[in-house]
Request: fold
Amino acid sequence: MSRPDLPPQEPVPTEPVFAEPWHAQAFALALALHERGRFAWPEFADELAAVVAADPDGEYYASWLTALERVVVACGLTSAADLVDREEAWHRAARATPHGAPISLGVLTAEPAPRDG
Reply:
């Protein structure tokens, strides 16, 4: 029975909103950076549209992440080299982490090799 003084309830989703945890994390990071004024949403939306147009068959959240990386570099929040360093550190940490354990960049003890140029 519906009460006229209450708004209708949204149906409960039967499937997860995000297929993978990193999809939700990428979404949340983009939203948080925008809400903190680090970039304008239309700037991100334009970049996302360009990435999707360049690879329309690509995985959507991979495109989302690529667009986010481009925007944070363009805004000066990080550099492309820092993103590459972080990705390499993540892969090293994944290799150093026992199967089934959460991956943490803290498991690394060696510094990355210096970059040329």
